[in-house]
Amino acid sequence: MFNNAQEFFNLLPLVIIGAGIVFSLLIEMYSKKSELLLPWFSVIIFLAAGLHSLYYVGDVSIVLQNMLATGGNVNVFYAIFTFGAAIVCLLSIDYIKKYGTYFGEYYIILQSSVLGMMLMAGAKDLFVIFLGLEIMSVSFYILAGMNRKKLNANEASLKYFLLGSFATGFIVYGIALIYGSAHTTSIDFITSNFAELTKNILFITGVLLFLIGFSFKIAAFPFHMWVPDVYEGSPTTVAALFSTGGKAAAFSAILATLFALFNGPAGNLFTPYLAVISVLSMFYGSIVAIAQDNFKRMLAYSSISHAGYLAIGLAAGNHDAIAGIIFYLAAYTFMNLAAFGIVSLLEGKDETNLSINSYAGLGTRKPLLAALLAIIMFSLAGIPPFAGFFGKYYIFIAAVKAHLTWLAILGVLSSAISAYFYLRIVVLMYFKSSEDEFVFEPSNNAMVAIIFSVLLVILLGVFPGTFLDLITRFI
Amino acid sequence: MEQNLLLTYLILIPLIGSFLILFIKKEQTNIIRYAALGISTIAFIVSLVIYFQFDSANSDFQLINEIEWIKGLNIHYHVGVDGMSLLLVLLTTFLTPLTLISSWSSIKDKVKEFTFFFLMLEVGMLGVFISLDLFLFYIFWEAMLIPMYFIIGIWGGKERVYAAVKFFIYTMFGSLLMLVAIVWLAVYAIGPLGYFTTNLIDLYKVAPQIPMNIQIWMFLAFAFSFAIKVPLFPLHTWLPDAHVQAPTAGSVILAGVLLKMGTYGLLRFNLPLFPEASIAAAPYISVLAIIGIIYGALVAMVQTDIKKLVAYSSVSHLGFVVLGIFAMTQESIQGAVIQMVNHGLSTGALFLLVGVIYERTHTREIADYGGIAKLVPVFSFAFMFASLSSVGLPGLNGFVGEFLILLGTFQSPILNSWWYTVFAASGVIFAAVYLLWMYQRVFFGKVTNPKLDGLKDMNAREIFVLVPIFIFIVWIGIYPGTFLKVSDRSTAKVVKQMYNPVKVSPVKLGLNQSSK
C-alpha cells in the first residue's frame, strides 16, 4: 500500500484520523464511559493530526500513486480542519449534555467528516475529490439531524441531504465531462494541459458544472437556499462545523482541482461566472442578513456573503488570490467558530436565547462573553486590527492586481452594508438593557474553545506575517 | 537609518495603560481615574520631549522608527513626525488628560470601561497622525472608530444608539473606498519601483506620475473618506448627531482631534500624492468649503440647543481649514494647520463649558437660560473668552488662523479669484452673530427660569481644566510664531511637492520664492 516509510509518515495526519475513527468505534462499543472519553479522545486525535501537519508542513510530496498531495498548503488546510474540529468537539461536550442527546456516533462521524475534508484538500485526482466530498457530505447530513426528536433538525437534515445530493450530481456530471474530454482524471494532467483543453466545449461545460456543484457547497448565491434552514435546524455546534470546515474544504477542493485557474490566461474564461456569483453572494448575504432576527440565520446569511468575498479571490485567479483565500479561510474559520460557539453556549435548553434580541444587555451581564462576541463581530465586519480585515485586504490586493478593481469596490460597499448587522449585535449587547431573565449553563470547555479562537483572530489580525509567510512559501 | 523609539513609546503608553486599567477593580473608580490621568499625562510629557527633540528647520519626517511588520506584503511599522503632525500630536496629548479631568464627575457609570476606551481612542488618534505607512495609517484610522462608537453609544444622550451607528457606518463607508485606493496605489507602485509598497515616502515619489484620468479617481477615493471625517458639506449630517449625543469628553475629543484627522489626511495624502488632481479639484472643493462655512454658520444661528450650535459652528470652522488647504499657498496652508489647533482649543473649551452647565441644569436649551451672568460670573467670563476665541477676535488664537487662510486664499494662484475670500470672510461675521447672540440670550437679561436659582459657579477642578486651554488661546493669539515655526518647513514642503511635478511653471504661479 505504501511505497516506503516516508510516504506513510507524510500521510500520518490522515492515518491518525482514520485510526482514530476505528478506536472511537471500539471505545463506543466497549466502554461504559464513552460519553466522558470520546470527546477528549477526539480532541487529542485532532490536535495530534493538526500539529503533525503544521510541524511537517515542509515535506511536500505526492503519494499513493499520484492520488494525494501532502505538505505545503495541503497541510495548512489539514491544520485548519483539525483545529477547527477540535474546537467543535470542545464546544459540543456541554452542548450535547444540555440537550441530553448523546450518541457516541456524533464524535465518530465528526472525525469521518474531517477525514473527508482532508481528502478533498490533498486530492490529486478527481475521484479522490469525489470520495472526500461524499465522506464529508454524508457525515454532514447525519450530523445535521443529530437531534432526531426535533422537527426542524429533521427538516435541516433532509433538506441538506436532498440539495447536497443534487449538487453532488452536478459535480459528478462535471467530472464525467472532464474525463470525457481529457481522457484522464489526473488533476496534474488537467492543470498542465488546461489551455489546450479549454478549446473543447465539453471540457468547459464540465468545469462549469464542477464549479456550480461547488458553489452549492461554499454556499454562494444563487445556490444558497439550504444554508439558513440547515444552520438554524442543525445543532449549533454542527452548524459551526458546516460553516467553517465545510466551506474551507470546498474551497480547498476548488484550489486543488482548478489550480490552473490561477495559473495563466486560460483560467480567465471562468472569471465572469465567478465574479457574478461573488457579487450576488456578497450583496444578497449582507442585505438579507439585516432582516434576520435569529442569530443562527443571521450567521447563515453572513456566511453567504463571506463566500462572496472568497469568490472574489477565485475570480481574481492569481497567486496572491490563493494566499488570500487560504488566509481568509483560516481567519473566517476561527471567527465563525467563536461566533457559533458563543451562540451554542448561550443557547438555553429549549432553543431559547437564539433571537438576537435576547442578547440585549449582555455587556453588563456577561462582560467577558460580550467582549469576545464584540471582537468577533468587528472582525467579521472587517474592522482592523482583527483577522477578518486582513483577509479582506489580501483578497482586495489580489483583485486589484488582476485588474478587477471594480470587484474590490463592490466588495467594500458590501462590507459597509454588512457592518450594519454585525454592529447591531454590539448595539444590543452594550447600548440596550433588558429586564428579561437570561438563563444559560456556563461551560468551561466551551469557554476555552471560544477564547482560543478569539485569541487566534486577534493574533492573525495583528501579526498576519508569520502565517502569511507559511502560505506564500508554497505558492 | 537611526531608529528613534520616542513615538513608539508615545503609542505604547496609552495602549499598555488601557490594558493595565482592566486589572483594577471596577469599584475603585477613583484609582481608575487617577491611573488614566497619570497615563495620559505621561504621554503628554513624552510628546513634549518629542517637541524639544524635533528640529523645525528640517522639513523631513523626523524621529522615525521603522520595523518590518508583514514581510510578505512589504508592510512596515513606520512612524515619524513632521511639523504638521507634531502640532496635532501635541494637541491630542494635551486635550486627553484635560478631558479625562473634565469627565471626573459627569461619568459615574462604568468608569473602567470609559477610561479603557478613552485611552484606546488616544492610541488610535496618535497612530493616525504619526503613521508613515498607508496600511498602518488605515489600521489606526479604522480601529479608532471602535472606542468612539462605544463612547457615544454607552455614555451618550437619548438618541445615542442612532448617533453611534450613524457615525460608525458613515465613516466606515468612506474609509473603505480609501482602502481600495490604498491597495490600488500599492499595486501601482510595482510598476515604477518594482515592489509592492504602502510606504508613504516611496509613494510620494511614485503617485504623482499616475495619469490624470486615474489620479482623479484616487484623489476622490481619499478625499471622500477625509471629507466625511472633516466633515465637508454635504457630508456633514453625521456630525450634529454624534456631537450632541456624545458625552462631553467625547464631544471635546471629537471636535478637538477627530475632525482634524480629516483635514490632516487631505494635507498629508491628497495634496502631495495627487497634485494634479488636487489642483483640478481645488475650485470645486473650495466652493464646497465656502458653502460649509456659510451653511454651518446659518444653521448654527437658528439652533435652540447650545451644544448643537457649537456642533454646527464646527462645520463652519472646518470649512475654513479646508479652504486654506485647497487654496494651496503656503500662507493658507500654514493658516489651516494653525486653525486646526485653534479649533481644537476653542471648540474644545466651548464643549467643556456646555458640559459644565449641563451637569448642573440638565438642559441645553437656550430658552431655559437667561441672565445667568450674575449667578455664575466665572463661568460667564470663561464662556465669553472661549466664544471670542472662536469668533476670531484679534489677540486671540482664532484670528491668526482665519487671517492667514483668508490672506492665502486671496493670493491663491489656483483659485485665482477674490470672490472666494469675500464669501469666506462673511463666515467670520456670521460666527460673531450666532455666538454672541446665543451669549446674549443665555447670560444677559433677567433670570426667568426659577430652576436656575442657586446655580453654582465653576469649581476648582473645572477651572483647572480650562486655564491651560486659555493660556494657549492667548499664546497663539499674541505670539503665533512659536507654533507657526514648527510647521513652517513642512507646509513649505507640501507646497513644493504640489507644484514641482506639475507641468505648470512655478514662475507663472508666483511661487518661485516659497518653493525654493
Description:
The complex is a heterodimer of chains A (475) and B (516). Chain A has one domain (5-472). Chain A contains 21 helices and 2 strands. Chain A has helices spanning 5-10, 12-30, 34-55, 73-99, 105-122, 126-144, 151-182, 187-192, 194-197, 201-217, 226-233, 236-257, 271-290, 295-316, 319-346, 362-365, 367-381, 387-401, 405-431, 444-462, 464-472; strands spanning 61-63, 68-70. In chain A, strands 1-2 form a two-stranded antiparallel sheet. The mean pLDDT of chain A is 89. Chain B has 516 residues and is mainly α. Chain B has 21 helices and 2 strands. Chain A binds chain B through residues 323, 378, 383-385, 389, 393-394, 396-397, 400-401, 405, 408-409, 412-413, 415-416, 419-420, 423, 426-427, 430-432, 463-465, 468-469, 472, and chain B through 69-73, 135, 138-139, 142-143, 145-146, 149-150, 153-154, 160-161, 164-165, 168-169, 172-173, 176-177, 179-180, 183-184, 186-187, 196.
Record the strand order, biggest sheet of chain A. Answer: 1-2
**Most extensive interface, chain pair and sizes:** A-B, 33 and 33 residues
Main sheet summary of chain A: 2 strands, antiparallel
**Strand adjacency order, main sheet of chain B:** 1-2
Count of discrete domains of chain B: 1
Q: How many DSSP helices of chain A?
A: 21
Radius of gyration of chain B: 22 Å
